[in-house]
Structure formats: structure tokens, C-alpha cells
Amino acid sequence: MSTDNQLQVIFITNDRKNKEKAVEEGIPAFTCEEYVKSLTANPELIDRLACLSEEGNEIESGKIIFSEHLPLSKLQQGIKSGTYLQGTFRASRENYLEATVWIHGDNEENKEIILQGLKHLNRAIHEDIVAVELLPKSQWVAPSSVVLHDEGQNEDDVEKEEEREQMLKTAVSEKMLKPTGRVVGIIKRNWRPYCGMLSKSDIKESRRHLFTPADKRIPRIRIETRQASTLEGRRIIVAIDGWPRNSRYPNGHFVKNLGDVGEKETETEVLLLEHDVPHQPFSQAVLSFLPKMPWSITEKDMKNREDLRHLCICSVDPPGCTDIDDALHCRELENGNLEVGVHIADVSHFIRPGNALDQESARRGTTVYLCEKRIDMVPELLSSNLCSLKCDVDRLAFSCIWEMNHSAEILKTKFTKSVINSKASLTYAEAQLRIDSANMRDNITTSLRGLNKLAKILKKKRIEKGALTLSSPEVRFHMDSETHDPIDLQTKELRETNSMVEEFMLLANISVAKKIYEEFSEHALLRKHPAPPPSNYEILVKAARSRNLEIKTDTAKSLAESLDRAESPTFPYLNTLLRILATRCMMQAVYFCSGMDNDFHHYGLASPIYTHFTSPIRRYADVIVHRLLAVAIGADCTYPELTDKHKLADICKNLNYRHKMAQYAQRASVAFHTQLFFKSKGIVSEEAYILFVRKNAIVVLIPKYGLEGTVFFEEKDKPNPRLIYDDEIPSLKIEDTVFHVFDKVKVKIMLDSSNLQHQKIRMSLVEPQIPGISIPPDDISNMNLNGPQKKKMKFEK
């Protein structure tokens, strides 16, 4: 404050001319950097300044490493004339000196271009849109099979990099060579804030440090910070500011401290940020569109709605489920046929097109289920209350009702908005007990028995058409009620009732897909599952052949039938292993707009058309499908975006991305909880089966824990064993022992914390015994897996 109680105005600008002008006019003016540095009470703010000034930065070696990026105008000309190609830069997790560029457009010939070596990567970062120049055929390379992680501390060791680049160039046959290129410019940067850890400089008192991102596809980043000692051992967020031509790494600045590495809250936050899962609390703007409480059904709500509260409807879900999307009923009609209903929460009644609640749900796209946490797509008032079809309360629903005969043939289908009152919320186990119990004959149990009987027929018909029954080792953690740490890990048990619910959900989704496509052939939101290219099945066919079994893959039906036949009386688990392997061969199912595609087929379900209708609380696709169906039956009005196929295609693109990220986040959560489990469990030995053989390792599955891991046979500082790899069988011979896919082995499992940032489950071979390779069952004393010694001291107090 100045003396006459006026606020003093100061002018902050990074524009030199503006600053000079202000000073001439007597206005105190500072650059952003000068102003922040003058706030002596908060020295930590300086760390958050973007690193803009590239000149006068004495870290720079002055030696130009990279070639200049061409200006955008030149790139656009080059792309137009075909000199350059535009695509998305995808860095490799396995090898920091290699990347691929996925070329945009329909050019089938060079869909994917390989880049090798620092200079050819030319400062592009994962997911950037880049322009590449194709190299002459004489310079084409093959994808390398070397695993290389950037572990150098010395930034200017570019000669060392060149040595490592030579390692990539192995002698290969002509047909292995792939189109190869180099980055000539960046069309669009796709940087985001990155989570990771500080690699503190060895130089005492240094402010300049390297930051190592958790995502191995991102290069290390140079930052300046005065808080290195407090940030060591913490997860932090860093943003990239730029990447000068004479710098081995990009420059960036510190953004936020997330907390201690290994802490559950910190690691969950990292996992959500790294998978781009929107998880901030819902804003006031979003919450303002929720219904006011206490809520009840009004006369206006009943318009265009059938009252089905008299029906004996019940829901069947996993234990502890609060977002109940679906409920079912089955009753006999006077004409002797059966009426079956699938009733889905009427979420689109509460989420109106275009408002803030709708936009936020569309952005999130899906609910994300982590091991101990659920990130909702819609606010809790809807997900766990007003839209959840709990028992003994009136709820709005969207119903799909069939009249069927006792052979499960559909005679009539009706869709209607409704109001229901569920008579029971059961778990799969409770529903199973009712079906199996001889002395229960109440309405709910009778309804369940009718549903179960029909579901078995529906499943049989589906499988006859060629639908696949695949397998994936899913695990459940049993948590300690106090510490919330996992105390037990077991594979999920599937009951008949799981299958019963699934059959009717599939049937409802197919019925709705047909209806919305009939009404809106150009803008129905559908879901397809492409058939895998034949090469995807190679690994499965070879693995089965090594056990004298034939797997046919020309159609889904022949695959399903040959999987059913692939039994071994002496090895009952073999069939499950084959199904797990078959799952790995599959393509990703995706949402698409019917007017933008002509292949609708769903390979895994052997259905010519499919969509998602049954889970609108946790999937935004279903909300759009509800809106389309409501317009089709005259229960709601349309809006412009709903019938705009380009808008719909954009929605599908975001939904496919969010679903993929949610899947990865879920896997990462399982991996983290598995680590916590083995941290407390110590070291264990378990039986395992080989899923894949690699050049220097075997990938195994441990059925007891549904856990997959890699046993490496080449270790640093140890003499390498004699390895012979045969890709055709496939097999790996180590010294005198040969390993095939599906062989049974015994492995030792432990948590390796030697790298704090990337703690991992480590597996070693126990049986069969190979001298110098296997660990004797009781010899684990020489394994230092506890990371830095000073951490250990804390626990020994």
C-alpha cells in the first residue's frame, strides 16, 4: 500500500518492448522471473518458473547434437508434396533409442515407420504429431530385440549413445527390414505434466538435477530446484518447457510434490495421473444439475412411462456393489410363454444433453474401478442412490421386455421407459443358493430359476454360432479392515449366476443395437470387435502344436470348437492356458458410428451387430444409446448433436481412449496391490506354467495368484548361460534343459525394491534345477532386494 491507501500497481510482462514502455511511463515493471525472485519469503516459487531462456545457460555444452526442426509452413508443403509423412510418434518402453511413427491417412504401404538413434528421434516426445522423412532403402533397419533403458547420469556422453546405437544394428535378413525414417519437424506437441522421481545430482549444492519420469517412454528432464534434498524419495510432477538443439535432455520445471514413493495414496494418485483418468471432485457447476433432495417420482416423470412396480424384479451383482445398473424379472404368461425383462437405470432422465453434468460425464467416459477405489463417471447421488436399482425403493428404468417360448426363442420385443421397485438386491452367491435350494419356492426364486434355465439355452445357442469363451486370470484381494493392505490374493470364482446375468445383458444389448440401427442407420452408436489377422494366432497355433493339438483359426466357430476339443486328461489346466493365450491374440473391441463404418461384426460374441445399453451409470456410451432408443420409441426428444455422425465419431474416439486407459489403470492398480501383498508376505515358491518363451527369458503364469511374470536368464555381473532359442517350436534351451510353452516349472517370487521408482515382482527359477541358474529352494540369503540400505535401517529399530 502506498501512503494514500492506494494499491500499488506493478506490471509483469515477459515482452521486452512492453517492459521498456512501462518503465518510460513510470510504471514499475518486472519480468515474471524478476518478480518471483524478489519474493524472498517464498524461495521455493522459483522452482516453478518455466525454463525459457535457452541462451546464457551454462549447462549447455554448446555442441549441437540435433538437427534443426523445420518451420510449420515447410512441413505442410512437404506433406502436401509427399516428401514428408505426418504421423503420431510412439516411443518404445523397451528401448529409449527406438520409436515408431504411425502414419495418418489411408496409405497402407508405409503405415508404420521405424526411427532408430537419438539424432533420428530428433527431440520428439511420445504422442507428439511429427513430420518424418523416409530414409533411402539402403538405410532401413529392423526393429531391435535389445532392451535398453537410459541409465546414464552424465548428460553430455553423446559418444556413449553412439556406441549403444551400434548395438541395435544387428545383421538381419532383407525381409526383416522395415521402412525407416527421421523426424524433420514437430507439427503438434502433446506434452502433459509427468509424474516421476528426482535423480539427485552427484555435485554437492547443485541446483541442477535430472528428473526420471515413471513412464519409460518419456526422456529424462532437466530441472533446477533448491529443494532437491526434500524431494528425494518423493513422487513429483514436472512439466517440460523446451528442448534446445544442444541439449541431450529437454528442460523443465518442478510443478508439485505428490508424496512419498510407495505410499498407497501417492501411488494411486500417480497411477490416475499417468493414465489420464479425470479424478478431481465434481465441480459446483456439474453438481448444480443434480436433482434436489428429497427426490420422488412426479406426475411429469410418469409421462411416457409404464408402471412396472408390481413385477417381481431383482438384481444380482458382486458383493458390495452400490452402483446397480441392471435388474431382471421372469414370469409365466397366461398363454404359457415366458415374459423376461431387463431393466436398466434410466440415467439419461437425469443427465440432460449439453449441460455441465453431461459434458463432464462425456469427458470421463467411464467409471474406473481400482482395487480399493472407484472413480465415478457420474456424481455419487446418481451412481449410488437415485440411479442405483436398490431393493424396496421406486426407481426410474429403461426396460427391454421379451416374450419368449420355453426354447428361449424371442417372439416379441418391447422397449419402454418404466418405473420399477426391485424386490431383492442379491449377490451372485445368494442367487445361486436360492436356485439350488430344494425348499425355496417364493416368487423371486421361481423368477431366478426361470431366468437361469433360459440363460443356459441362450448360451448354448450362442456357442453353436461360434461365440468364444475365453479366459483371463482375474484376481481378488482380501483387504485388512484396519490397514486396507491386501492380506490374501485369490483367483475369482465364477458361478452359474454370473453367466445368467451376462446372457440377458448380451441379449438386451443385441436387441437394442438392432432397434437403434433400424431407426438411425447413419448415426447409431455401436460396438464392434474386429477379427484378428491370421498372424495374431501364430503363437497359439505353435504352442498347441507343441502338445500335439490342432487349433483352427479360420473362423471364430472353428477356433471355439478346437479350443473345446483341446483337452489333455493328464494336464487339465492346459485348456485354461490355451484360452488365456487365445485372449492375447484378440483385437480390442471399439465403439463406432454406424454411418462411418461398414463392418459391424462382433467377433468374440459371433453377433452381426452389438452395442452397450446395460451400464449407463458407469459407461457414457450407454447414455447415448439410451437417448437414441428413447427417440426411437417416442419417449424423449432428439437434439442436433445426437444425429450428427461426425460429433458421434468424436465421442466414440474419446470413449475408446478412456476405456483403454481405464483398463491400463486397473491393471496398474492390481500390480501395485500385488507388490504390497508380496512385501508383507516375504519370499514364496509356487508352481507356474510357461506362457511364452523369449530369447533370454520365459514368461510364466502362477495360477494360485493369477500372476504373470518374467524369469530372466541373463543377469548383470554374472556369466551368461548357453541359450538356444527356436522361434518355430517355440522353445528355449538353457545349458542342457529345454523349455516349451505350457511346461510346468517352480519359481520363487519376491518384491524387488532396488529401484524405488520401478519396484517390481521378481521371479527366479527353482525347478527344474539348472546348475548356476536355478536357486536352491532354501537359498535366498544372497538376494539384496530392499533397495537403498539407509531405508532398511528405519525398519530395524
Automatic annotation (TrEMBL):
Coiled coil: none annotated. Its cofactor is Mn(2+). GO terms for cellular component: cytoplasmic exosome (RNase complex); nuclear exosome (RNase complex); nucleoplasm. Residues 305-635 form the RNB domain. It is found in: Nucleus, Nucleoplasm. The keyword Magnesium applies. Its main location: nucleus. Keywords: Acetylation, Exonuclease, Exosome, Hydrolase, Magnesium, Manganese, Nuclease, Nucleus, Phosphoprotein, RNA-binding, rRNA processing. The keyword Zinc does not apply. Residues 777-797 are annotated as: Disordered. GO terms for biological process: nuclear mRNA surveillance of mRNA 3'-end processing; rRNA catabolic process; rRNA processing. Belongs to the RNR ribonuclease family. This is Exosome complex exonuclease RRP44.
